[in-house]
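Re-run with default settings, no changes from the original entry. Doing this only to confirm the output is reproducible before filing.
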Amino acid sequence: MTDETNTNRRHFLGIATGLMGAAGVGFVAYPFLASWRPSARAQALGAPVEVDISKLEVGALLRIEWRGRPIWVLRRSPEMLETLTAPEVAARLRDPESRESEQPDFARNVHRSVREEFLVIIGSCTHLGCAPLERFEVAPADLGPNWRGGFFCPCHGSTFDLAGRVYAGVPAPTNLPVPPYMFMDDNTILIGSETGAA
């Protein structure tokens, strides 16, 4: 064998060994790097959720779940919407303009929504996380003659109006949160995304 043949053989063996080593590192690194990706379940929990509102009647509340949190979609009647601008209601609210609330910028209005008719909120009291009850009737005996409809937390008595705004003098510190959402069309809301909200 000549020196040139030995050099070519060593060069070939060096390249082959390097390629095999790189392949081995790839096989070892892939499972490690793949473990950093969120699981399918974790991805599903954080993924946006489409909500069909085509059959939601006026005055009705639809409950769904997004990221393990209860989401409520309320289709408000014209009478319900009138209460939101009533001076006697606004005077009793802790944060009527929603300045201290967890919500996207598009919900900083008296209706706290993209479209007046549809309220989308997280149905969890901002005091200790209990689920408020919908109390849409006007002036029931247990809530008094000034009650114009809204949400009542049975755990500690916090009350919220029909936009999820908290009344003053109750344990809940802030309005019910509004999640990010957008209307995909007239019959579908996408919870968890507000890109292109309209």
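The chain is about 25% helix and 20% strand. The longest helix spans residues 3-34.
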